[in-house]
Design goal:
The complex is a heterodimer of chains A (115) and B (110). With 115 residues, chain A is mainly β. Chain A has no helices and 11 strands. In chain A, 0% of the residues lie in helices and 57% in strands. Chain A is globular and about 40 Å long. Chain B is built from no helices and 11 strands. The N and C termini of chain B lie far apart (40 Å). Classes of the chains: A mainly beta (115), B mainly beta (110). The interface between A and B is medium-sized, with 29 and 26 residues.
């Protein structure tokens, strides 16, 4: 199994509070991703990173920011959580990106509930 | 962007049956991956298969890139095969994002 750790695994927070999810990898992979999974929508990309301090937006990036100050850590921040951000969040890593064919590995997910 | 459709959305089978899951995509691709999400939410990569056929035990996958579809075959289904199966493709140029289909939920009944 790829060495990916997400934290926290479960969190309940109130509307309007900031929330940070952490993804830590031990594989030294260049690419890291944050996806959210919701019923009827499958997995949708929020943000991804292609190197330290190099990030780009995905299809559902509004309301989210990311940072990557080290190869091994990719942080996802909800500046002011809303109920629509209640979801399961998955971190993923890839050695050279999905386009070039390397396998993408997923973390175990973080269940976030915004009340 | 590229569109990915999976069918059927739901499939319920008796243990021991065979199944075929389909993934259609709207543009030519040079990469396609199949994933299994088990009932506990864990996502496991099954195949990287941009073209041709691959087999891994009771599972096999075939991608016909020129016709823009991929098939995942599961033979002699077991209850542990239950879960959601996703296919995912990247764009042919630009960034490294994978686009996922909405999945096929497979339920194997003992």
């Amino acid at each position: 199994d790829a060495g990916i750790t997400q934290s926290p695994r479960h969190k309940v927070t109130e509307t309007g509070t900031p929330v940070t999810l952490r993804c830590h990898q031990t594989e030294n992979h260049r690419y890291m991703y944050w996806y959210r999974q919701d019923p009827g929508h499958g997995l949708r990309l929020i943000h991804y990173s292609y190197g330290v301090k190099d990030t780009d937006k995905g299809e559902v990036s509004d309301g989210y920011s990311v940072s990557r100050s080290k190869t091994e850590d990719f942080l996802l921040t909800l500046e002011s959580a809303t109920s629509s951000q209640t979801s399961v969040y998955f971190c993923a890593i890839s050695e050279s990106g999905g386009r070039t064919g390397n396998t993408i590995y997923f973390g175990e997910g973080s269940w976030l509930t915004v009340v | 962007g590229i569109q990915v459709e999976q069918s059927p959305p739901d499939l319920i089978l008796q243990e021991g049956a065979n199944s075929t899951l389909r993934c259609n995509f709207s543009d030519s691709v040079n990469n396609l991956q199949w994933f299994h999400q088990n009932p506990w939410g864990q996502l496991i990569n099954l195949f990287y298969i941009p073209s041709g056929t691959k087999q891994n035990g009771r599972l096999s996958a075939t991608t016909v890139a020129t016709e823009r579809y991929s098939l995942l075959y599961i033979s002699s289904s077991q209850t542990t095969d239950s879960g959601v199966y996703f296919c995912a493709v990247p764009p042919n140029f630009g960034n490294e994002k994978l686009t996922f289909g909405t999945g096929t939920r497979l339920t194997i009944i003992p």
